[in-house]
Amino acid sequence: MATSTKTSARKRAPAAKKRSAAGATASKSSAGSSTARTANPVEDMQKAFTQPLKDVGARLQNLNLSGAASTIASSGRKDLEALIKANQKSYQGLQSVVKRQTEMLRDSITAWQGTVKSLPGGDPKEGIAKLDKMGRDAFKQALDDIRELADMAAKSQAEAFEIVRERIATNVDDVKKLLKQGGK
């Protein structure tokens, strides 16, 4: 009888272990699947949105930014200098245009005064012909003056724009260099 009790106890112990292990596995899988069903879509969406940002953040943290503050300050100073220089060029060009316009107006007034003084008092046909010629010449001169002023203004603005364009190109090159240094 002692043997049979030992044998049946041995047989019962592995069976009990199997049942408890199976129950634990079943409860884990059911708990895991219910948690997975409820949290997975939200977690997946969050991961989809946050993972690229985390990757960019990690890359930015790996950038070697030693001396970056002084580089940024220097770049800002150079940007301001370029802007000041471009504004000065633009202002100088505007001053040149206004000065030339004043000269043109003075010349036109002088020409009109000379023509009016030289008008003959006797023959109206001759006076009208002279005024007609003076009007055509004044119109032609005005068109030439407008072209000249437009060219002066365009040249001035092109010079100012070139200063800004060069500074932008330099900034782009500086950023490329920083990114290459950070990627190493």
Keywords:
3 helices, mainly alpha, 184 residues
Q: In words, what does this structure look like?
A:
- The protein is elongated.
- The longest helix is centred in the N-terminal third of the chain and has 61 residues.
- The protein is mainly α and 184 residues long.
- Helix 2 packs antiparallel against helix 3.
- It has 3 helices and no strands.
Q: Note poorly predicted spans.
A: 20-37
Percent of residues in β-strands = under 5%
Tally of DSSP β-strands = 0
Number of helices: 3
Q: What pattern of helices and strands is seen along the backbone? A: HHH
Distance N to C terminus? 80 Å
Classification by helices and strands: mainly alpha
Helix content: over 70%
Mean pLDDT across the residues is 75
Mind telling me the C-alpha Rg? 45 Å
- What composes the largest sheet? none
Question: Per the principal axes of the C-alpha atoms, what is the gross shape?
Answer: elongated
Question: What is the element layout, followed by pairings?
Answer:
Layout: H1 2-62, H2 68-117, H3 124-183
Helix pairs in contact: 2-3
